[in-house]
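Team,

Forwarding the record for the chain on the shared tracking sheet. I've put the sequence and predicted structure together so nobody has to dig through attachments.
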Amino acid sequence: MTLPSLDQVRTIAVIGAGTMGHGIAHVAAVMGANVHLYDALAGAAVAGIDKISKNLAKGVELGKVSAADRDAALARLSAHDTLEATCAGVDCVIEAVPERIELKREIFAAIDDAAPKHALLATNTSSLPIADIAAAVRDGSRLVGMHFFNPVHVMKLVEIVRHSTASPAAVALAVALAEKMGKTPITVTDSPGFASSRLGLVIGLEAMRMVEAGVASAADIDTAMKLGYGHPMGPLELTDLVGLDVRLGIAEYLATSIGPSFTPPQVLRDKVAEGKLGKKSGEGFYRWSKDGKKL
């Protein structure tokens, strides 16, 4: 396997056009790559590009992006209807489908057939074992984890996750690619929850238990962490942003993999069962307006 150099990564396929996928496509296009965006849901890739357009327009309005750079980035984006067309001729594939390991394995088996053999493969997951996902492709050494954070075009951190058979070249290319996207990468070993999810979830779950016990309101708990510890966002507001269903899935996985300290609180299970998934549904630990503002 001969991976491309950073300068040779000219076309990137992003698989999944949801919250994380369209954000990854955004930063990849701004970086200067041509980006092929695909989603199995009809119309989702086109909708993802529309969201990128709106985010770039906001960047222009705030003076953070020039109009010329916005137009150039949008010109590098294209929506595709099939996985085969999306992966044809690309130098890197970044998968950002929902956090279900069998789905990711199925997708990567198809990517393995569709993408060039030299392409770097990366999975955007916050907790799933990278080695198990890499086992779905013929040459797992070219696959690494690239854990981006929401909103991708704003958040600076990317976790590069190396599993036991990942090639040093693949890890190095992923690090360099993240840096070129304007991110600060950290490299972690493949383990349950990696670094950020494991630490962040501990705080988030304890905040939920405090709400359950009536220790303080969600708003006051979040204020304590923002003003007392310098967190830019409280753990419960962050949970609403990430999605309560996403956090529940991660907590269940870590409870099985690490131990009962990650057992999901009942309040989290109840809210997910009621469809209160956070910002995306309009209610979680807070209520949210249709334009995404906290009420």
